[in-house]
Amino acid sequence: MPIPGRSKASRPKSAGRNVKGTLWIKVNPNKPETDLIRIAADVIKKGGLVAFPTETVYGLGADALNPDAVAKIFKAKERPADNPIIVHIADKKDVYRLAHDVQAKAEKLMSEFWPGPLTLTLKRSNIMPDITVAGLDTVAIRMPSNEVALALIRESGKPIAAPSANRAGKPSPTIAEHVIDDLAGRIDVVLDGGPTRVGVESTVIDMATTVPQVLRPGGISFEELKRVLGKVSLHPGATASRGFRVLKARAPGMKHRHYAPEAELIVVEGRLNEVVKRVKELTALSMADGKTVGILATDGSVSNYDADVVKSLGSRSDVGSIAKNLFRMLREFDEENVDVIIAEGISVKGLGLAVMNRLRRASDFNIVRAS
Ligand code: TXA
Ligand code: MG
């Protein structure tokens, strides 16, 4: 009910801060304010762009069924047109509108892991515009668990196509400031719900093959999927520790460089004591070359190092904290103007597989084996 003497039209002006034409709106992450969500939902309905938090990373959203709106995502991000976009929904029923031939296995995953960081690729229905799925015969769908994301999808009444809200090639944003850094002036609204909980993107699993295959490791681990599905495979690109050519890309994102900071990044993998030795050697070499060096360590090893900038991702016994900090710290090193980042590798168990997949790609497979 409108309150007399108070104009509703004045709300957008005070709703947030204007940065180069992008409206930055802070929302309550647990109980998003309906009037604020409505401002963003109206933008989606009109074919505009809204960045919003999910539990993994911030997404850059548009109406998935509006080809002109989706085209704006590609333009704002400078994303290659052959890289399809994940469609976000708030109601499982929508799967049957966007996809067909949904198998029992896929339904099992939906009931086990949704809402949450798992994306299923399914046979697309013909309401999906070509541009959203980059011309593929499948569509990638997920139901996020973040309350702001769910409120935005519900309030707009649209399935929302959303890649990560970074410029193509850069680390994914885990706070709204990163979205502003990359996209201010290129998008209409950022809904700021604070830091994201998981920190790495969703797991992408192809459910359109006989044996489901993980195309991108992420927030739901391979071990968890195996427990539910029994039979599941891992695409070689998911575990790759060197670059390889993707000819016919089933997961087109694989062939583009990703997650990369400006600085050169070297990943040192192996047993921890050997890794520490090698990181120290590489640091000395780079410093002798006159380079500014940043080290990305873990809690148990961080005290061994002396360099221009030294950070710890967190404890190796809490890989969740490592995943949460990874992209933010890669961006921080760039702000601190280091020339080279030397990072410790971690175990590929559980979430560690997603962390190492991102780190290896961010380094463009610049990997040193310590032994
Ligand atoms: O957690 C996430 O997944 C985040 C949040 C915003 O939901 N989104 C995200 O989107 O990471 P993006 O565009 O940065 O990565 C999507 C990945 C890409 O590697 C893309 O190639 C793949 O999913 N993908 C999308 N549709 C696909 C399809 N139909 N078949 C195979 N891979 C697909
Ligand atoms: Mg991305």
The number of domains = 2
Low-confidence stretches: 1-11, 245-249
Large-scale geometry? globular
What is the β-strand count?
Answer: 18
Q: SS-based structural class?
A: alpha/beta
Number of helices: 13
Bound molecules: threonylcarbamoyladenylate, magnesium ion
CATH architecture label of the largest domain: Alpha-Beta Complex
Query: What name does CATH use for the topology of the largest domain?
Result: DHBP synthase
Rg, nearest Å: 21 Å
CATH homology-level superfamily of the largest domain: DHBP synthase
**Helical percent range?**
25-40%
Termini separation (Å)? 69 Å
Mean pLDDT: 93
* Strand percentage: 15-25%
Structural notes for this entry:
The chain has helices at residues 11-15, 34-45, 67-77, 95-98, 104-113, 130-133, 147-156, 176-183, 222-229, 236-239, 272-288, 319-335, 352-362, and strands spanning 17-19, 22-26, 50-53, 58-63, 87-88, 99-100, 118-124, 138-142, 160-161, 189-192, 203-206, 213-216, 233-234, 264-270, 293-297, 309-312, 340-344, 367-370. The chain has 13 helices and 18 strands. It is α/β, with parallel strands linked by helices. It is globular, with a radius of gyration of 21 Å. It folds into 2 domains: 8-192, DHBP synthase; 264-369, Threonylcarbamoyl-AMP synthase, C-terminal domain (Rossmann fold, 3-Layer(aba) Sandwich), CATH 3.40.50. 33% of the residues lie in helices and 20% in strands. It binds threonylcarbamoyladenylate and magnesium ion (MG). Magnesium ion is lined by residues 163-164, 172.
